[in-house]
Amino acid sequence: MADTITLMPYDEALERFEPVLGLEVHVELGTASKMFCGCPTTFGAPPNTQVCPVCLGLPGSLPVANQKAIESTIRIGLALNCSIASWCRFARKNYFYPDMPKNYQISQYDEPLCSDGYLDVEVEGRTFRIGIERVHLEEDTGKSTHVGGSGRIHGADYSVVDYNRAGIPLVEIVTKPIPDADRLAPEVARAYVAELRELMRALGVSDVRMEQGSLRCDVNVSLKPRGAAEWGTRTETKNLNSLRSVERAVRGEIERQAAILASGGRVIQETRHFHEDTGQTTPGRSKEQAEDYRYFPEPDLLPIAPDPEWVARLKAELPELPSVRRKRLQQEWGCSDLDMAAMRNADAIDLVEATVAAGAPPADARKWWMGELARRANEQGVALADLPITPAQVARVTELVASGALNDKLARQVLEGVLAGEGEPDEVVEKRGLRVVSDEGELLALIDKVIAENAEVAEKVRGGKIAAVGALVGGVMKASRGKADAARARQLILERLGVQG
Prior knowledge:
- The protein has 501 residues and is of the alpha+beta class.
- It has 16 helices and 14 strands.
- The protein folds into 3 domains: 301 residues, no CATH class; 111 residues, no CATH class; 57 residues, Orthogonal Bundle (Arc Repressor Mutant, subunit A), CATH 1.10.10.
- Helix 1 crosses helix 4, helix 3 packs antiparallel against helix 4 and helix 11 packs across helix 12.
- The N and C termini lie far apart (73 Å).
């Protein structure tokens, strides 16, 4: 059922109300096997081929905890400045849904593995410290697909369930309320999820591919009249799978709730579905409270009691954190804040760094990834990292340009050939005959031909209109199919015409 209320413009909503945010991010861990059984976790396998009695919840089956998943969760907690529990245990979270094969989820309730941390994010020159309430470990659910209608359960012709995802280790990272984001609430939410995603990547605990569901975000939003002490009723927008969706969902909920409150209505505590096409949300279900899940300790699993020495070793082995790394790379590469922000937004920092490591100057590596390759990725609707080209290949193209073997126009054609599967850059150069015309005699012959065909332009240049030489250079480039060195061609043309450049 869609809402019929007219939204309040964002600026007006923020003049009258203050937003309070809460973010719950679910991260599928990149372990080889599931949380409580030995089934594989390969994404995209045929439906219901990676299942067993344990993850299907068949009678008599018993779970065994995945040590690697516990280790990864502790590493996440340490990177988020959390306290690590000396003793905790799993609990059963009881609720019925078709993608829950046991009709309960093994999770953690009042005894999370990690708690009371923080993550700093920067938005428009301000640093926001986002408090982390808890980081706990659980198992993921299966995946329901509703066929027909809008793709939601209401109005669908039928539904099917794939249990391959059921039982995959899932970390839930829950923030404390964020009351101070104010007008920047949408941007703060986006920045937090982006920073968290980079952190998970740096730790190597997940591929955090939001489009595949390995990182999903639930956004809680409430409003209170400006100056009021009591927070408003919150809603929870579920399963946002892109940074843009996170930002749009926060903005849309602020506009929706403000309109309700301004008209004297009441915000209902419920889950909401986000719609990519409109940027708005529609009702899901009324939000259960903790007691509705009837939590109780999981009787089939032993408590977790991490050895303090093990935790200390994991802390000592943490990699360089993303914020520290970005500052270091920015200094090493000599790029501006805007350049670094653009690379970060395009998920290009890793690619540029690898290209520099392969021998390319930082400016050249950034130029090709953020220029020609970003354009091609946008055209194809894929991530930069999914383009069929490696940093080493991009570095080789920059080397060929620096040596004079290619100019930028020819380099773009080489990249095109590599992307098309025609081989390594040098192979593409040879197959397509793309080397710059470096033979002086061949270049002079082209110049003489162009001068002869453009006598009037040549006379203008001889008469002192040096700017007109550009037309002759263009003619040489056209005659050479872009293979001539334009700067050298200009120099030789002026010499041929007896003009000082």
